[in-house]
Protein: histidine kinase
Organism: Sulfurimicrobium lacus
Amino acid sequence: MEDEVLSLHDRLMNWLLTPLFLLWLFSTVAGYVATLNYASQPYDRALLERAQSLAAQMKLGSGRERLDVTPTLPAGGAPGEQDRMYYSVSNEEGRMLVGNADLARPISYRGGKTGPLFSNTEHGGEKTRMVSLVYPGPPGSPSFQLHMSETTHQRQASIRGIFANIVIPQLLLIVIAVGAVWYALKQGLEPLERLRQDVTLRHRDDLSRLDETQAPAEVRPLINAVNDLLERLKQVMLAQQRFVADAAHQLRTPFAGLKTQTELALRETEPERKQYALQQILTSAKRGNHLVNQLLALARNEPGGQGAETFAPLDLNRLAQECTVNWVPMALEKGMDLGFEGISQVAPLRGDAASLTEMLGNLIDNAIRYTQAGGQVTVSVDYEHGGAVLRVVDNGPGIAPPHRERVFERFYRVLGSGQSGSGIGLAIVAEVAKRHGATITLNAGPHDKGTLVTIRFPHHGT
Ligand SMILES: Nc1ncnc2c1ncn2[C@@H]1O[C@H](COP(=O)(O)OP(=O)(O)O)[C@@H](O)[C@H]1O
Ligand SMILES: [Mg+2]
């Protein structure tokens, strides 16, 4: 991962160092060219003077040439010594007349000019620098050429010296610049590094805010966003913890009951009383089973459970009718009238059929459970303002206004109903409605009697 994503530090280093390096390369090349030009000038001049003085000794171009002069030239060779020198005098055909090496070569008379001509040559496998002079002589007499060359050791040594004097300080400058940039970046990014350490060294459930006051202004919005996220995470974690604690507490009661009842049943010897005790155990087990199912239903419909991806088109009218039919036996058992009032057309809805069945089941269960024997419960489906509406109404004792908000909370029960329960039913209803974007209202029924729960689904687009 680290090879793919360059760190901010490396990225900035690259952006700063690449131009710096190119600049250095350019100045080095320019420095080298300049050195080459200026360093060779005095050597060329000395070479020319020597050639001219030899020509003067030989009286070249006077018509009375004396070619028997033997010049004293440095032998050269050893390092640090003078460069080795060669010369030759030739006639205009390029035939060597005298000299210590045949350097004769045709000279291009640039526009008839006979000034000194410098050229880079080679002699005996060594680089040499040569100057060529032309002496036309008086009319009628032959003309002469003088070539003189020298090896370039001294020139190269002096170029190297000058060049080193230019390049080394520049190199030093670059090194200092790189160091300064690197250090400045490290200093500048220090707050981020501290932040990183702060986060890595945290205890795994420490969700406290990150300190944004130490961070550079550029990263502060990011830190604020992370802090917001941490805050939300903290809320969710607290809710989870509370839920687990509540659920455990709720489960403890049926399990403790089961234990006591089982101990009792084991102790009974009379078959009839044993039978009764076993019946009690079954009731407790059913209650515990119901509670676990309710908890699972709640968890399934909570935010963070499955989302809207399980939604499918369905007909609320049919779903509600089928669900109501399933509760008829329980209503009959209590001598109650459970009715359904649907609409003639379909009530299209996108939703999760299993969750909606769960929701409706809880509403009908409550209506039957809390309404006196012989009472009346009606489930109805309507279509209002383009959205499906589900209602469950009973003529029972109703829920007093102070409790109407709170009954939707988890584990909240109104005491004194004489019915067993866990207080999760309406919490499930609330979560399912929320998942479907529906709104719930809880009112008294007709004539201010009983309970009316209304669930309005959002406008169905298609
Ligand atoms: N139709 C109803 N009539 C009267 N009281 C009701 C009705 N529905 C719910 N309640 C009250 O709201 C409380 C919460 O209901 P619920 O969340 O389903 O939990 P549970 O039914 O397990 O007690 C119930 O304890 C009951 O007091
Ligand atoms: Mg209930």
User: Anything to note?
Assistant: The domain at 308-456 is CATH 3.30.565.10 (Heat Shock Protein 90). The chain has three domains: 8-161, 217-301, 308-456. The chain is about 50% helix and 15% strand. The pocket of magnesium ion (ligand 2) is lined by residues 362, 365-366, 421, 425 (CB under 6 Å).
